[in-house]
Amino acid sequence: MAQKTTEGTSLHQGILERLDAGEIVIGDGGFVFALEKRGYVKAGPWTPEATVEHPEAVRQLHREFLRAGSNVLQTFTFYASEDKLENRGNYVAEKISCHKVNEAACDIAREVANEGDALVAGGVSQTPSYLSCKDKTEVKAAFQKQLEVFMKKNVDFLIAEYFEHVEEAVWAVEVLKESGKPVAATMCIGPEGDMHGVSPGQCAVQLVKAGASIVGVNCHFDPETSIETVRLMKEGLQAAKLKAHLMCQPLAFHTPDCGKQGFIDLPEFPFGLEPRIATRWDIQKYARKAYDLGIRFIGGCCGFEPYHIRAIAEELAPERGFLPEASEKHGSWGDNLSMHTKPWVRARARKEYWENLKPASGRPYCPCMSKPDGWGVTRGAKELMQQKEATTEQQLKELFQKKK
Amino acid sequence: MAQKTTEGTSLHQGILERLDAGEIVIGDGGFVFALEKRGYVKAGPWTPEATVEHPEAVRQLHREFLRAGSNVLQTFTFYASEDKLENRGNYVAEKISCHKVNEAACDIAREVANEGDALVAGGVSQTPSYLSCKDKTEVKAAFQKQLEVFMKKNVDFLIAEYFEHVEEAVWAVEVLKESGKPVAATMCIGPEGDMHGVSPGQCAVQLVKAGASIVGVNCHFDPETSIETVRLMKEGLQAAKLKAHLMCQPLAFHTPDCGKQGFIDLPEFPFGLEPRIATRWDIQKYARKAYDLGIRFIGGCCGFEPYHIRAIAEELAPERGFLPEASEKHGSWGDNLSMHTKPWVRARARKEYWENLKPASGRPYCPCMSKPDGWGVTRGAKELMQQKEATTEQQLKELFQKKK
Amino acid sequence: MAQKTTEGTSLHQGILERLDAGEIVIGDGGFVFALEKRGYVKAGPWTPEATVEHPEAVRQLHREFLRAGSNVLQTFTFYASEDKLENRGNYVAEKISCHKVNEAACDIAREVANEGDALVAGGVSQTPSYLSCKDKTEVKAAFQKQLEVFMKKNVDFLIAEYFEHVEEAVWAVEVLKESGKPVAATMCIGPEGDMHGVSPGQCAVQLVKAGASIVGVNCHFDPETSIETVRLMKEGLQAAKLKAHLMCQPLAFHTPDCGKQGFIDLPEFPFGLEPRIATRWDIQKYARKAYDLGIRFIGGCCGFEPYHIRAIAEELAPERGFLPEASEKHGSWGDNLSMHTKPWVRARARKEYWENLKPASGRPYCPCMSKPDGWGVTRGAKELMQQKEATTEQQLKELFQKKK
Amino acid sequence: MAQKTTEGTSLHQGILERLDAGEIVIGDGGFVFALEKRGYVKAGPWTPEATVEHPEAVRQLHREFLRAGSNVLQTFTFYASEDKLENRGNYVAEKISCHKVNEAACDIAREVANEGDALVAGGVSQTPSYLSCKDKTEVKAAFQKQLEVFMKKNVDFLIAEYFEHVEEAVWAVEVLKESGKPVAATMCIGPEGDMHGVSPGQCAVQLVKAGASIVGVNCHFDPETSIETVRLMKEGLQAAKLKAHLMCQPLAFHTPDCGKQGFIDLPEFPFGLEPRIATRWDIQKYARKAYDLGIRFIGGCCGFEPYHIRAIAEELAPERGFLPEASEKHGSWGDNLSMHTKPWVRARARKEYWENLKPASGRPYCPCMSKPDGWGVTRGAKELMQQKEATTEQQLKELFQKKK
């Protein structure tokens, strides 16, 4: 197959035109985890002030995803609602301003998108206000504030992502929908449904009814589990005779042991997840399965690095007819290993080898699965109330005690 | 401890002045693996033509390491000898030129080093010529060619790294030593010694006698094994009444199952190593152990991402008196998790938690250890002869057959 | 607690009197696996001709279970229907006779039962005839033939166990019920139900309606899974407003990875199951969970050795008021370790230690879970047809080929 | 190969005649572990009073080993020295008498040996007296007392086994040697040597010089490690130009993670070792490796059940020309599985399948390896002093504290 870096047909076309035409749209990977490892994002608050503080780092990561095959560049506005930027002693809104963080994110994404054939999607995500039981008006106002920036910067479409409660996701879709731009909505749930017990099928139905044209899941679970959740969403939509495009942006971490709330509850979250990182071959299997289920917006979330996105693009190259730019530096199924100096490594230059490999952990004192933490607290519980000021020593001491 | 980003005393001082004064010098991480995942380096040949093709990507990675605490920026000239740039169908020398690749690497490293308090080290590594039994003159000429660039660009010191045979490493040191600049030399060996059976102690002795002021190991083995190898080197030097500074730049992959030749032989090399990636806590333990053994040049090799280097700098912050710039975005031992929305994650904001975590692999169908490939071929064997032209289909077929 | 070897109240009482009075009845363990390891049973056919060939070995195993706390000794008549004794080249019926195998089993069980306070249960299990689609009359005749021996030898009650299809189990219960003796019935199924897709709840309902006074599961799944299946049976009975005692006799192998057909499909069956063997502490947890669910007939199946049965008796000693005879040689929760010569082993003489131990496998090259074989063939398929003559070389060759 | 249950040539021949003639002699398995699971031995003291209390259980186990292929039946006199029978509150000597325990053991072994072609070996093992620093005379007197019984009962030869210190083993050999009967001596050590740091080679030399005709190892380590230790013994003997037959009776537990003192230090000892139990295929590999090294007395220790001994006999059947009696019930390499009802299990009736199986642990929350306890106390330390009276609550409390 000839290697091409752009595809004539889709240039300048919108997200719905592409999906309606049956095109595969490749999303990008997870910014907060990737930039945390690169030194620009703080684990805990996970807020995106790097757009102002270190635009070159954000720009470079966008470029890598574009080069790896992403057709959509999401503005790095995850957790960039004003209340989140001010939560638990973070004070980003005060020091920089919510407006500037969101604006810078749009500018950087657009700059890089223009270097290739990619769309810019403005994104909102769940808010501490909702978790702290603030009312609908207040929560919607937070989304509205971000939307104003997205409209000013004229993003191509909008994504409401990372919602644990469909109620809040619906509010977000309602706000975004007013813009007239296409809206995608993904929840960070597994097959058990949202935190209030709403099933994936019901979540999908509510989101489409609220105005989302594309629905699915992102984050919290591994590719296999996420595809299963989207399958349940698809069934729910079919049962309700509703139509929508399907989308999947899972973790690049294996999470066979997760409960309802996903990887947050794993003891390894967020600083011990390394052994769970998916290989490129795991991701190729994911891309194929997602495609086979009818998902056409296929991307990733936390843990997805550029090479994972490239793996999606390589797996689906036969269907798409072209390879991403970064495949200049990557032979499909390892075939560049034919250039290795060692003969036994050259012997690994074939699909059969990598497809069947069961990689060892190199950690003989560690188990394969963990029991997730399960405190059983839900929205409304005292411990889940958010606060502007930093967590106090006394609060931490109580938590450490409870943890034991 | 107050967070500082520069340390007055060492600014503008050379590598030997720093080490002689007892300072801890932090190296950088592995460029070929990190840039392969970002889409700029081809696994197999592993050559650094990205310095010319994508300088922005190389520059950004240097910056991240500097920000994470690196005091030495190595020019991205790994495998940049002319014979390697032309090996097995790679043709980089022909398309770009060996000279340009090395020059660009020096320019980028210097540009970033000037943004902080870091030294630039020009690096050479083992050659296909040696493996193919070319004579001493020819091998030395390859190093000489790279050295000319390093001298022209006036790097601060030189590193001969990634040598499997001490004989070739000595030749490299002899060439580099003629420059008058300080020379460090590291071999990619484990406790069993080099590929010809020379013990680590003997390797160290030969390297120091050839002119190296700093000796140690890099690549091929995990931190624990590498420290053990440096310990053997230290003993060898003591027995021979020789003095040198010690250096360690191991993998950030766990390799308890490796044989003599290290991770190259593992079935997971190079595309299935994810489950073996070290956590930041593993690296903090490594930094402490390395320090306790008397190693003062402490860095990393393949698998080391910026956050791993930051972990070295954080672990040794009490000794050094300052934190790296990237620690703005990282609370020591997870203490920024006190800003997390979920209470059970806030309960992980403490050293005791992360220090004792045994992270699960999330891969219940995979084992913990692998049997390394062991073809038993050594320098001189037909299969180890390198060639300029690409590996043929017939050659590959023979290898696949042998692999079975 | 005073150690007693008999309990006055239950002596000479029947199984239903005991269960109706709320007593805990402890079953025995798995004869075919235990005697295979001792050298008296052939894996593959799994038939009990040892009752005639080596009565001393069968007697000794009964004695060990009695000593460990069993209140029920099952006649060793598993797979002792005439058609099974003649299946695939086994020829036991021809060489010994079905009648003699069953008679000897009854005699040995009675002899040992009289040495303590135990009941003798005559047992039947599923037949090759059913699998080969023989009709109801023929299948029932096989059970009838065994029942005649049980009546002649006057066993205390009857067990129909190890049925994969509830249809056949119902036929067995109907035959046994005619005897007027109490009938227990257990299926070797998991939460997914029988091989025809009948749910556990429905299975329980059909068995009780057919005349079983005690229902539950045996074999094929680990304790945890089996308890879950009995829980579903209990719910089914409650929904149908039916009453029956509950019974559980699971494997002593961990089978978290099993599919619908249980451990038969695991690649390790039957000669590589060692790493899955439950510890005595696993069994104590099982006994407690079974008790808490309301199960009062608690025993084991394949993999259960006498010390596993003792673990049930020790866990439930507080409720029962006495320990089994074999506890003379076993301190609860390891407290006899206080007599060990090594101090660090004496330090293990406490419940907290053993309760929390996560035992290592000692097998670093092996995974934790396996993918079960899943040929998807069911009753009626050519490969499932049984035959009197031995499997031919040609038949085996076809199977090996299919296995690849 | 025709199946034979006796072999004409060796009937009535002594142990040295057999070994001198190049015969393979198969030992038996571990009595204390097997009988602990059957309910007759107390873990902790591990003493053999079952010979008097439950002779039928001891006899049955001897029979199973004989049937499995054992050519040597060891009297069940492990830890039957008077001081051990009285250690830490055990009081067996007081209640039964050391003399009677040893006598009964000899009688039972002889009775069963006469049922086949087996020799009876009287055995002594290390004493608490030595550990408590009693003098040579006192320690030797303990062995002498047992020897008197062995002579009276006219055993065929003698084994001094399970010694952690070669000094004590030499004393034992000196005592036994006076009888004029052949003496075998095995130590429970690994490649690191005895508890005082004497190398395996040196241990072997000292034992042969003291009069042992057969030397090797038993217990404490897995087959692979034990063979390595015997290899070092063989080299030691060759270097010293001494001749002796080699013997190996390892654990049937995998212990890749053990330190100097073997499995006693593993956190799983003695009640959580199940996942480490060797399969029959592991034992066949052991038998082959032992044979290839020149070991001709091949048996087992703790964890070896009759089917493990049968595996030795089956693996070496080509060399010996016959199969053991128990192979009536066991097809080599699983070939009786051709009689199984399920086709995919029939497909496992072949060597290639079982030889390559990597059995899963079924324990996804458990690791593969453990860190051994290492208290670093050696002979002479207060905690290692033995005492006649039971360990007090206060002593235990101190140990529990230390264990934390």
Q: How would you describe the overall organization of this protein?
A:
The structure is a homotetramer of 404-residue chains. Chain A is of the alpha/beta class. The first copy, chain A, has a single domain (11-403), classed as Homocysteine-binding-like domain (TIM Barrel). The first copy, chain A, contains 18 helices and eight strands. Chain A has helices spanning 15-20, 31-38, 50-53, 55-68, 82-85, 92-95, 98-113, 128-131, 136-152, 166-177, 200-210, 223-239, 280-293, 306-315, 317-320, 343-346, 351-356, 393-403; strands at 25-26, 72-74, 119-125, 157-163, 183-187, 214-218, 245-249, 297-298. The first copy, chain A, has an eight-stranded parallel sheet with strand order 1-8-7-6-5-4-3-2. In chain A, helix 11 (200-210) crosses helix 12 (223-239). Chain A is globular. At the A-B interface, helix 2, helix 4, helix 14, helix 16 and helix 18 of A face helix 2, helix 4, helix 14, helix 16 and helix 18 of B.
